Structure formats: structure tokens, C-alpha cells
Automatic annotation (TrEMBL):
<keyword id="KW-0813">Transport</keyword>
<comment type="similarity">
    <text>Belongs to the MscL family.</text>
</comment>
<keyword id="KW-0812">Transmembrane</keyword>
<dbReference type="GO" id="GO:0008381">
    <property type="term" value="F:mechanosensitive monoatomic ion channel activity"/>
</dbReference>
<feature type="transmembrane region" description="Helical">
    <location>
        <begin position="82"/>
        <end position="106"/>
    </location>
</feature>
<dbReference type="InterPro" id="IPR001185">
    <property type="entry name" value="MS_channel"/>
</dbReference>
<keyword id="KW-0472">Membrane</keyword>
<dbReference type="GO" id="GO:0005886">
    <property type="term" value="C:plasma membrane"/>
</dbReference>
<dbReference type="InterPro" id="IPR019823">
    <property type="entry name" value="Mechanosensitive_channel_CS"/>
</dbReference>
<keyword id="KW-0406">Ion transport</keyword>
<keyword id="KW-1003">Cell membrane</keyword>
<keyword id="KW-0407">Ion channel</keyword>
<comment type="subunit">
    <text>Homopentamer.</text>
</comment>
<keyword id="KW-1133">Transmembrane helix</keyword>
<dbReference type="InterPro" id="IPR036019">
    <property type="entry name" value="MscL_channel"/>
</dbReference>
<comment type="function">
    <text>Channel that opens in response to stretch forces in the membrane lipid bilayer. May participate in the regulation of osmotic pressure changes within the cell.</text>
</comment>
<dbReference type="InterPro" id="IPR037673">
    <property type="entry name" value="MSC/AndL"/>
</dbReference>
Amino acid sequence: MGFVKEFKEFAIKGNVMDLAVGVIIGGAFGKIIDSVVNDLVMPLISAVIGSPDFSNMYVVLKGTVTEGMALADAKKVPDTVIFAYGNFITVAINFLLLALAVFMLVKAMNAMKRKEEAAPAAPAAPSKEEVLLAEIRDLLKAK
């Protein structure tokens, strides 16, 4: 089998297309979650904790940095080692919200599948062959 033909069969399969759609939807879903975290959740958490921005939360391990200096400026100070934990907090909250949203989505899909499986299937009408075979059977029984 030629390489091009084999690649065409692979690319046209439903699984590859489903994966491509999933990646595109996942990217858009990730942007929505980022907005929820950055625009809705972080301001509420910042109001409780008192820090206006998690991305500028850090600890200076070595060197001297002016207090209240932004992280980007603090990183520019020579001979300074900085433990920047604020961005990690933002990413961790982002992950937890994304995991919760995916869990709720999967839970809803599973509930819909259970309802679909529980619904009795309507009996299919017999095919022409089955009808013909039933007539033959009945004729043979009558003899």
C-alpha cells in the first residue's frame, strides 16, 4: 500500500476527525476557563486575600529587591534569585476549574447515555426475507 493512500485512509477515519474537532473545541474551552479564572475567580480571591494580582506574588531568596516591585522588574535585578509562586497559584486554580468543568461535562454525558440505554428500543419491522421465511415455515407446519 502506498504511503499517500495509507495516510489518506488514516486521515479520513472518524477517530482522527473527532480528535481534530476535540482539539479545536478544547482550545476554545481553555480560553473560556482562562477568562473565568482571570476575570471572575481571581478578583474574588484577591479581594479576600488582599493581593491585587497573583502573578506578582514572589519571595526573594537571594539578593535585594525593592518591596512592592513587580515580578518582571524584580527578575531584572542582577544577582537576584526569586521564587515566583503567584503564577503557579493562578495555573493551579485554572486547572482545578477546568477539571471541574470537564468532570461536569462527562457526568452529564454519562447521564444522557444511561437514559438512552434505559429507554426500550422499538422492535424493528421484519425484513422481506424474514417475512418470506415465516410464511414458508407456516406452510411447512400446515402440511
